[in-house]
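Project standup — Tuesday

K.O.: blocked on the structure for the chain from last sprint. Re-posting the sequence here as requested.
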Amino acid sequence: MTDTRAPWSPEAFEERLRGKSTSYHIHHPFHVMMGRGELTPPQLRGWVANRFYYQISIPIKDAAILSNCDDIAIRREWIQRILDHDGCHIGGVDDAGGIEAWIRLGQAVGLSRDDVTSLRYVVPAARFAVDAYVNFARQRPWQEAVASSLTELFAPHIHQQRIDTWPTHYPWVDAAGLQYFKQRLTQARRDVEHGLHFTLQHFSQSRALQERALNILQFKLDVLWALADAILLSQCTIEITGPKA
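H.V.: unblocked you, prediction finished:
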């Protein structure tokens, strides 16, 4: 049956995409506890250690998008995301990257570099959720994988919340470890501008495509929610000895 419904206007479509913010993991009980300063040091360490698996998977996901993409303009823009996380030493630019910044966050909460990079604290359900997202980017059309990135619409708020509240709620955390959140404020807004523009343009060809984009965004939101579920329900906590314990 032919779908005769008219597409939403770009403004109405964008409003629906942004309306998905109600499913963002900032509303998950674990992140609500984090925002209120209610996590114990072992709980916060457990989150940092598990979330690292997501961090190291982001450039792998983005590389999968690039490998499927036949649009040179998109590839030129998208490759910056890999450099943001992996770091680069190009043309006088020396950037350690977001993955290294997350390792420093781990050290700021009392973990060793090996505690973080060994992945020994990553719980199975967290791996499953993150791997589902990477496999989506590998297997689905690159246009859909681009749309899945739009959870970044909501990311600056949660990064700013951590920058604003952690020094008060978690004063034992070395403030230098918050650099990851600070640099993502700018990077995420830049990425959103590009990803949103493409999604509004490509998926506005029909109502069915617009609804598909909304479902894709919901899938990614579900991945992040499931990751938070995995950390909360596993009760992953990391006890250490020393001044931060």
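K.O.: great, moving the ticket to review. The mean pLDDT is 94. The domain at 10-233 is CATH 1.20.910.10 (Heme Oxygenase; Chain A).
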